[in-house]
Inverse folding.
């Protein structure tokens, strides 16, 4: 096909689709699994080329950490056998990549960052640090460590990065976060220009994928009515252009930060897979030590087909949410009517008292979910 031609025939479209199907049928191509089963299910098995997802949260909730863990899982050959043929471009517009390395060292060496920087290390510790740093070194990962303009990023992608990686199975580009992109216009125009560039890129390059990190609007913090707690697509900062780009959009939320005593309101029987996180009424969620993932948009499936809400337990709160759900149940007045017997539901659920707030920062408390791939997740974010 002539590269200057802006149209394709129906036959060409069908043949392209057939060839793509056969590549997945044969195993030549595989979706890149994220290590988060709820997300993989929503995305038909994982990340596919020429798609994009967005992760949004208020500051300090953990959106950059979730993006980091997804990258680690995607690039892990134990989760994705084709990961050696993946590359990742990290546009770190908010955090200094050197700080990310220090966080990683702190986790791996079980030392405070202050000790790593200021306390004299002995020879054994120096060798351990050097070993950890070598593990961080990967020729599959490239950084853009400062905010750039859309034109600068586009020039690098079109003229340097994508030509050098045109034969890779997947090329991932993460942008953290959108509000920090540079430009001559206001924030909205800069973000719109960035989303437009990403959309053109994913239609131009057959192996590219975008992971976009975004702030949420402040308005989400002021919703006091439980019926309005549920996040929505419009909570994303400049959500219109972002929503047009993305295949899926995920919101992270820590309701306890807003002073909620319970979270959301819904009919009994909803979210049966999340029973252990529900309040006594079984019509809302508890809030202590919980981080909620909400899928607010997905293209390949309907929200009714997937687990649109996923819950992580923060470090230090594990015993307050046993797998069996409630600790015990009893009927008022000694009634022995079984739960679900058809009689009026007067079940009283006795739950453990909320634990005292852990001493570690809130954004560093949650434990990543377990997955189906026998991968052990670290308990402390970095």
């Amino acid at each position: 096909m002539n590269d200057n031609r802006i149209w394709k025939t129906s036959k060409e479209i069908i043949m392209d689709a057939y060839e793509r199907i056969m590549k997945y049928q044969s195993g030549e191509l595989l979706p890149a699994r994220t290590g988060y089963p709820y997300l993989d299910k929503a995305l038909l098995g994982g990340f596919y080329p020429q798609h994009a997802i967005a992760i949004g949260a208020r500051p300090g909730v953990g959106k950059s950490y979730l993006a980091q863990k997804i990258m680690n899982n995607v690039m892990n050959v134990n989760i994705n056998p084709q990961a050696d043929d993946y590359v990742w471009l990290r546009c770190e517009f908010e955090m200094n990549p050197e700080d990310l390395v220090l966080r990683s060292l702190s986790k791996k060496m079980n030392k405070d960052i202050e000790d790593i920087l200021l306390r004299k290390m002995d020879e054994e510790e120096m060798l351990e640090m050097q070993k950890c740093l070598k593990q961080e070194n990967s020729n599959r990962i490239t950084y853009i460590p400062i905010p750039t303009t859309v034109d600068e990023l586009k020039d690098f992608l079109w003229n340097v990065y994508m030509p050098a990686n045109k034969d890779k199975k997947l090329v991932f580009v993460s942008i953290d976060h959108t509000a920090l992109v540079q430009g001559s216009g206001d924030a909205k125009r800069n973000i719109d220009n960035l989303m437009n560039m990403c959309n053109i890129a994913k239609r131009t390059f057959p192996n590219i994928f975008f992971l976009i990190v975004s702030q949420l609007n402040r308005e989400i913090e002021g919703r006091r009515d439980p019926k309005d707690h549920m996040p929505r697509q419009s909570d994303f900062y400049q959500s219109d252009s972002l929503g047009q780009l993305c295949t899926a959009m995920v919101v992270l939320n820590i309701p306890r930060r807003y002073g909620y005593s319970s979270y959301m309101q819904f009919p009994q029987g909803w979210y049966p897979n999340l029973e252990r996180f529900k309040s006594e009424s079984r019509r809302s969620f508890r809030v202590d030590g919980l981080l909620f993932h909400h899928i607010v948009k997905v293209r390949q499936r309907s929200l009714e087909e997937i687990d649109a809400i996923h819950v992580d337990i923060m470090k230090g709160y594990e015993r307050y949410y046993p797998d069996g759900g409630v600790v015990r149940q009893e009927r008022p007045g000694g009634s022995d009517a079984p739960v679900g017997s058809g009689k009026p539901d007067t079940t009283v659920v006795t739950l453990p008292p909320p634990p005292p707030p852990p001493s570690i920062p809130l954004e560093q408390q949650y434990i990543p979910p377990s997955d189906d791939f026998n991968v052990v997740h670290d308990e402390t974010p970095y």
About this structure: The mean pLDDT is 82.
